[in-house]
Amino acid sequence: MGSASASSLPTSAGAGENLVLILDFGSQYTQLITRRVRQLGVLSLCVSVTAPLSSLTGFRPRAVILSGGPHSVHASGAPSFPAGFLDFAADAGAHVLGVCYGMQLLVQSLGGAVEAGERQEYGDMEVETTAPSSALYGESVVGIRQSVWMSHGDEVVRLPQGFEVVARSVQGAIAAIEHREKRFYGLQYHPEVTHSTQGKETLRRFLFDVCGIKADWKIQDVLDEEIKTIKSMVGTDEHVICALSGGVDSTVAATLVHNAIGDRLHCVFVDNGLLRYKEKERVMSTFNSDLHLPVTCIDASEQFLSKLKGVKDPEMKRKIVGKEFIAVFDEFAHMLEQQTGKRPEYLVQGTLYPDVIESFPPPGSGMTHSHTIKSHHNVGGLPEDMKLKLIEPLKLLFKDEVRKLGSILNIPESFLKRHPFPGPGLAVRIPSGDVTEGNALEILRQADEIYVQAIRDAGLYDTIWQAFAVLLPVETVGVQGDQRTYGYPVTLRAITSEDGMTADWYYFERKFLADVSNRICNNVRGVNRVCVDITSKPPATVEWE
């Protein structure tokens, strides 16, 4: 499930005419390139270089962007193009833009030379255009400077035949190259990050002026095409199950499918014992009063927790949760078969594009798509013998795009602004811990409720992308009521983000943190220490497991 196939693309989005492929070489900014292209109204898809060239069969991209990456092109095992990629791009008539590592790999593959730079360039740097005219920068641009974001130790020292240098850094390193006849272009810096002040304009020129792409990709197109696809996929007498988590993704997916097939959609909300404080009551009330979706609530908490007893390995916890969900859905499907005389064939999931992208094996790791990597709760946690076929109408969308889709579907804005919640629930918020040990889950629920409610009371909820508490399964010493205590530490996590692919930690005022810490320690029995997670993504992920 690591990359989308050509057949899965929405045809009305102009995939056959105006598609941009992003080849991912492992840069922390790869998903930003994908986002920036979409923000310009062009459909872009991220494909891992660990995938074989056959996975691109059927694509006819107008442009291919080669991402940056953490490797040196000289390092053993450094990622390269899939075999035959350059011929594929030429046959497709695609323009190729290499960014940072992507530019160096392009140069080396075409006969140029890349060497370790005498002076490495990291962070803010000025570059100056050296050519009087440039496809990437325009006409009469010689001598114009701009601030960009550099991140490289190697540098291009000799160009392949036919290439032209169009910009250099203030230190003299080659910063931009072009071969217009062969449709090859390169930027040594990252145009996708906001630190590159003219980066978005450079991408705009590349897409529209150089490649001749039209900005014809809209969320409404996705909605229309997905409804058409679902209607053609699901027979007129077939039934579909939707797993509702109470989050934005599954709710938007359910509403979309309900629009396509009506009451042949049967939604199920599973209480797996890993939900937040009063989550079941709150979610079911919203489903009934605001969304008018047909929802059956199943209490399977004992089933899930009995299987999780004694399990501490995070990957195993995810696999168990995924397997038990499917067991519940299979049982629900059997019940529906008895009621309707027709066994449901499909399961709807709110899988998003970041779920798919983050399930790629890392480039340069030597792993392929057949290797086991961190499984996402909507991608890697499902058993191979699952009887239900998947419908994933959101799998090409980022979170902010899903919210726009939800708005078109008239889902209340207050619901669309809910913070994300992981499929395995609180199981991944007790890292390397047995969730059934003692009253760990109840402690975490209470601490999380105090924290999130304080954020709401402070008017910060809509400003923050996601906020939650994490319970560390260790005991720390404290003093409460003049007595020595041993209790759990709770860590508070809050981030800001556009799409969840990259994130910054949210800066709270000292008084807010002091109040929350006091309230947790005074009201949640078993907690005697509160910490704050001030790590961005990368290097950390949003969740702790």
Automatic annotation (TrEMBL):
<comment type="pathway">
    <text>Purine metabolism; GMP biosynthesis; GMP from XMP (L-Gln route): step 1/1.</text>
</comment>
<dbReference type="InterPro" id="IPR025777">
    <property type="entry name" value="GMPS_ATP_PPase_dom"/>
</dbReference>
<dbReference type="GO" id="GO:0005829">
    <property type="term" value="C:cytosol"/>
</dbReference>
<dbReference type="GO" id="GO:0005524">
    <property type="term" value="F:ATP binding"/>
</dbReference>
<protein>
    <recommendedName>
        <fullName>GMP synthase [glutamine-hydrolyzing]</fullName>
        <ecNumber>6.3.5.2</ecNumber>
    </recommendedName>
</protein>
<keyword id="KW-0067">ATP-binding</keyword>
<dbReference type="InterPro" id="IPR017926">
    <property type="entry name" value="GATASE"/>
</dbReference>
<keyword id="KW-0547">Nucleotide-binding</keyword>
<dbReference type="Pfam" id="PF00958">
    <property type="entry name" value="GMP_synt_C"/>
</dbReference>
<keyword id="KW-0436">Ligase</keyword>
<dbReference type="Pfam" id="PF00117">
    <property type="entry name" value="GATase"/>
</dbReference>
<dbReference type="GO" id="GO:0003921">
    <property type="term" value="F:GMP synthase activity"/>
</dbReference>
<keyword id="KW-0658">Purine biosynthesis</keyword>
<dbReference type="InterPro" id="IPR029062">
    <property type="entry name" value="Class_I_gatase-like"/>
</dbReference>
<keyword id="KW-0332">GMP biosynthesis</keyword>
<dbReference type="InterPro" id="IPR022955">
    <property type="entry name" value="GMP_synthase"/>
</dbReference>
<keyword id="KW-0315">Glutamine amidotransferase</keyword>
<dbReference type="InterPro" id="IPR014729">
    <property type="entry name" value="Rossmann-like_a/b/a_fold"/>
</dbReference>
<comment type="function">
    <text>Catalyzes the conversion of xanthine monophosphate (XMP) to GMP in the presence of glutamine and ATP through an adenyl-XMP intermediate.</text>
</comment>
<dbReference type="InterPro" id="IPR001674">
    <property type="entry name" value="GMP_synth_C"/>
</dbReference>
<dbReference type="InterPro" id="IPR004739">
    <property type="entry name" value="GMP_synth_GATase"/>
</dbReference>
<feature type="binding site">
    <location>
        <begin position="245"/>
        <end position="251"/>
    </location>
    <ligand>
        <name>ATP</name>
    </ligand>
</feature>
<feature type="domain" description="GMPS ATP-PPase">
    <location>
        <begin position="217"/>
        <end position="418"/>
    </location>
</feature>
